[in-house]
């Protein structure tokens, strides 16, 4: 029942708050290991969550883990979505990234942060599905705004624009595309969902 009401019972990334304002937080995140899947939405017909189930199968969220050990890997939150097209292509935290070229605009990259016990990519079990890539991400800094409810394209676009304006106004240099972090499963009631828009800064 806790998950329906937004209770987050899984590991979330540790970070250091460098600055907190009425509009946003500046956070520094330590290095992490990520499971990543890049795909075209047309390859995921019948799967409304895009690549989520492929990554969930890798960690064993729905049964036997699809990795070579096989080792069950704990789910973490958020799932992160990256987009670099003009329009926002959604997935979950899980991270989704879309390329800039016309064809690539439709490509999506979704990412799960692996538990902090995995400090290097080679420590994580190797995926059976070759589409899943394990990689390391270094220390990084973001401007972050937290919000409740359903993270629709329109809401996210509005949050991104407002955050960009606030960061630029305060002299921060934006160095990449935004991430959408979603902390709750789809069955969580909308008012209890926690979402974040994160913009990388120097």
Automatic annotation (TrEMBL):
<comment type="similarity">
    <text>Belongs to the HEBP family.</text>
</comment>
<dbReference type="InterPro" id="IPR006917">
    <property type="entry name" value="SOUL_heme-bd"/>
</dbReference>
<dbReference type="Pfam" id="PF04832">
    <property type="entry name" value="SOUL"/>
</dbReference>
<protein>
    <recommendedName>
        <fullName>SOUL heme-binding protein</fullName>
    </recommendedName>
</protein>
<dbReference type="InterPro" id="IPR011256">
    <property type="entry name" value="Reg_factor_effector_dom_sf"/>
</dbReference>
């Amino acid at each position: 029942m806790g998950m329906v009401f937004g209770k987050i019972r899984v590991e979330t990334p540790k970070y250091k708050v460098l600055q907190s304002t009425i509009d946003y937080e500046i956070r520094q995140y330590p290095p992490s290991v990520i499971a990543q899947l890049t795909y075209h939405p047309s390859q995921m017909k019948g799967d409304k969550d895009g690549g989520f189930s492929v990554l969930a199968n890798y960690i064993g969220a729905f049964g036997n883990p699809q990795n070579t050990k096989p080792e069950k890997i704990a789910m973490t939150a958020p799932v992160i979505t990256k987009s670099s097209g003009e329009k926002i292509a959604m997935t979950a935290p899980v991270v989704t990234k879309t390329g800039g070229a016309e064809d690539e605009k439709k490509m999506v990259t979704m990412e799960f942060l692996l538990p902090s016990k995995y400090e290097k990519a080679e420590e994580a079990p190797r995926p059976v599905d070759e589409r899943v890539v394990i990689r390391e991400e270094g220390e990084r800094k973001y401007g972050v705004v937290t919000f409740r409810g359903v993270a629709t394209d329109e809401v996210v676009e509005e949050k991104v624009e407002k955050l960009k304006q606030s960061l630029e106004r305060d002299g921060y240099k934006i160095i990449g595309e935004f991430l959408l972090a979603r902390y709750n499963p789809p069955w969580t009631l909308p008012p209890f969902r926690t979402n974040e828009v994160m913009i990388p800064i120097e």
